[in-house]
Amino acid sequence: MAGDGGPDGPGAKGGWRRTGSLDEFLAAAGPFLRSRPALHTVALTVTDGLVRRGLDLYGDEPPRFGWHEAPGEVPAALLWTPPFAPMLIGGDEAAARGLARVLAEAGGPAPGGIGARVEQAGAFAGEWARLTGRAARRTFRKRLYRLGALTRPTAPPGRARVAGEGDRTTLERWHDGFAADVGLTVGFGAAAWADAGLARGGIRLWEDGGLPVAMAVATPPAAGAVRITTVYTPPHLRGRGYAGAVTADLSARIVAGGDEAVLFTDSANPTSNGLYRRLGYEPLADFAEYAFGADPKSP
Q: Model's pTM, two decimal places?
C-alpha cells in the first residue's frame, strides 16, 4: 500500500491518501506534525521511534499511515501501529467520518478502536458503528497539558537523580504498577521499556534515605517538545510530595534544554490534574479513545 488512497489504485479517496511507506508519510505529513509539536507530541515521538528503531518497533504487523489533503495544506494525518488502535491527528469531524468510510471500505484488518481529539474521535466512532454495525465504547478520556511558568513545590526530603542500571528491577516493577493503575498497556513490556529509558537517560528518580521513592520519564525531544510520561509513586509512599518533586525537577530540565514540556492526564483523575496545574501546566486539548465491538457479521 503506497500513496494510493486504498490498497490498489492511485489517487486520493475522500481526501485521504494512505501508504505503508514511512518516508512517504513524513514527506507529506511531516511539516503538519512539526507545525504544532506540543499538540502532536505522540505522533512525533512514535514516528521518531519508527525512524530510529524500525517499522517492527511495536510488533510484526506493519504500520499504516495516511494524510488528508486540502488545497495547499495537509490538515490531518493517520498513524496506525498495530496492535494499537489508529490515531487520527488533527482534522475536523467531517475528515474523521471520511477516514472511517475509507477504512471501512478498504478491506483487510479492521481497527479495534480509534484515538483522537474528543470531537474527532466521537465522529469517527459514530460513523464506524453506522457503517459496520460494531458498537463503539469510549474507554478513556485524557487531557494534554503544556507547561507555562513552572512553580516548584516545597521539596520533600531527598533529591532527584537519573536512574541507572542498578535501578532496573525497581523500574520494571514500577512500570507494571503504573500500567495496573491506569488500566492500559504502556508501550513495550517492562524490560524493553527500561532498556530504552536507561539508554537515553530519560528516567528521573526521587530518592529519599538512599532509596528511590518516585519516578518520572521523559520522551526523546521531538520538534521542540518533550513529553513527561509514567509518573509513578508506589502506593505506600504516596501523599508525601515525591511525585510533584520529581516531575518539577524533570520539567525544569526539559525547559532548560530549550524544549516545551507536555504531559497527559486521565481527565477523570482530580489528583493528577490538580498536581500538574499547581506546577504550572495549562490545559491544551482533550482526547478520547474508543474501542469497537466484534463484527456482528463474524461467525
A: 0.90
